[in-house]
User: What shape does this take?
Amino acid sequence: MDSLIKHWMTGLTVEEKCRLLGGASTWRTHSIERLGIPAIKMSDGPNGVRGESLGSKRTPGVAIPVGIAIGASWDTDLALELGDLLGKEAIRKRTHVVLGPTINLQRTPIGGRTFECISEDPELTALMATNIVRGIQRHDVAVTVKHFVGNDTERDRHNVDVHIGERTMREMYLRPFEATVVDGGAWGLMSAYNRVDGDHCSHNDELLLKVLRNEWGFDGVVVSDWFGSHDTARSAHAGLDIAMPGPETIYGERLVDAVNQGDVSIADLDTRVKAVLQLIERTRASERSVDDQEHTVDDPTERALCRRASAAGTVLVRNVDNALPLQPEKLQRIALLGPNARMTRVQGGGSSSMQALSRKSILRAATDRFGEDRIIYEAGVSIDKMAPVASSTQLRTPSGERGLQIDYYNGCDLNGEIVHTDTISSSLVIFFGSCPIGVNPDHFSIRITGSFIPRCDGQHQVSLVITGPGQFSLNDQLIVDDPLGILPRSDEYFGLASQEQISTHELRAGDAQKLDITMTTRAGFSAVRFGVRPPDDPDAMARAVRTAANADVAIIVVGTNDEWETEGHDRESIQLPGEQDELVRRVSEVAKRTIVVVNAGSPVAMPWLDAVDAVVIPFFGGMEMADALIDILCGDTDPGGRLPITYPKVLSDSPAWISYMPVNGVQSYGEGLLMGYRGHLASGVEPLLPFGFGLSYGDVNWGSANATMLSSSQPTCRVTLPLANISSRQATVVVQCYVRRVDSNEQAKLGGWHKCFLNTREQRVAMFDLPWIAFRRWDVDRHSWVVEVGDYEISIAKSSAEVCQRLIVNVDGYEIGPSLKHN
Assistant: This one.
């Protein structure tokens, strides 16, 4: 133990030790000033380091592609680079602990956080996440890989009891955590909200003690998910080191009482405290004060990395007769259609959202590339789930400035003293951690005043969503009156918000509408959302179709947004929202060439797939996504991605769908190991797009592969494959290896892969090793990993559904215990 940690441990009282284990505020732990023990600051997250605020005053930062887009790159070197960038961003945001990466598996295509996760496959998730961890922690910034474990749905996530099964748990859902801890050396881990086999993850002895610490040798900190801890004594014993957020947690005074009553031993308390003090040392928190000003760096080299990363994770899934790449010099009229062309989505919703340095739309990127005279834009349809949030251009403060005025009051007395006044640029306000000086973050009220200016005549829907008691008046007419906070709840904003309250009003363009909104906040998270839905445009789709008919090419950008894909609730369907499918169908009937861009973070149905010429999926590709997409459409960059998740034709084809709904509070993973592509292979149900699938602009010949077992203490299989680019374009290749024991009935699993880039006419031999992990199986009788003796089939494949060659290797079998430092 470090001498400083020994000094601190000697000097700490029981009360101070208990205080260290509970959050002091939303994002910070306590400091003990008399001993010089600093506070630790935490921040989401997976696709960028947001900083301390989730509200309107967020410090802008670098927004990298979301997890599924990183997974689609199949590029572990890129994952390391992106982790390195997140580590730098954490330093800029004065953050010691990054709350990520998210490494739960994409069990179903409709999970609210599917976009935030890396893949449905445990090995792809494990190896990509491990390098993200390494990249972040090389800057002395800790990660908290999350959510340990089984938080694979947002449905009743705080209470659902997940039953996975021992072998499936070990081989599938624990694998990414095992890799990031054992191989990546993760300094932190976040416990999940849900229960596993009856016990909440925040005090689950089997997970936190037996597996994590005793088997894997984890020596970092376990942090609870926010408001996700339940039992003081059991948590302290099982290994929950920090309960977040503060100021009220299961630790602090409650832990003092538990120690004094003998429910928690001094030994357990000291173990928890030493872990926190070690975290302080590892992250150099004494040198990096939580009170230092967050700042933004706009570095061209980092933008270039984000642009390259977005392209690397963009997947080309259809390209009939080389419809792509475009030849810009031959295009005079380009129809750019669809709602997401203008309202391009670069990230999903929930705690991972952040204020990106920039968020260029695909419309702007296309205009920059082709010029305004060649781009004709029509939205065609709308996909807004709720009435759209008003922007600053439509809002005015009482003094006539852009935006709305917000006044803060401590407590719930709106007739009391105004302690702070500010201007907000949007009609969505979120409070989760950061408040103006003088405002009590745990109990305050707000009044939002100003006016909204309609852009057109007609019937407008005006809506309000609030998370606490409040009122809303329009032109001094009381529209929403909920002083007790008893409006029916919805799934929005982590399930804390009211249902959308909608009223209809005849408004005229340019006539200012006076707004007055009040709300008393709740401790932790609060939000106010004012929205306005303008009159429907009955000619919108017909205009888009006419535009496509008169253009050289039609590019339709369909997708979702951060209301459809967000933490807090799962999607109900894989259908594109609104009438987007109809828009694509009608455009494809009249356009000379139809290119569809799917700007969605999770799988969607594509009933029109066979009717269009090309389909590109950039997912939510981060702040440089729009320019990266145009690079790909114009052929400046090869689409480098392969699907990290299976796209079913219909939701009911998803292998986990049959057991998706909890029964009496229990979520049973009835599909077992046959999740994702393995389930499709077992059932023979053809997916819309298979796992691992993706096209390149180049054309590569695959030669005859060879597989050789190397002599070592653990079985390792070396695979070689000659590759030859026979085209005049650069090509991207992802050689995938699926492994199964020949005399078993089990489905093949991804054992490893090799990604490479071939220049024009280049030839090379791809060589890579499949480690012993590719051959192991969890034996539920021996509760141990085993590698069984016998012949194994190595499938050399372009996707889970397209095997090019099959090779047989013989493996010597042996048993290994439940934990092993991987080589």
Q: What stands out?
A: DSSP finds 19 helices and 38 strands in the chain. The first helix runs from residue 3 to 11. Residues 3-52+62-282 form a domain with the TIM Barrel fold (CATH 3.20.20.300).
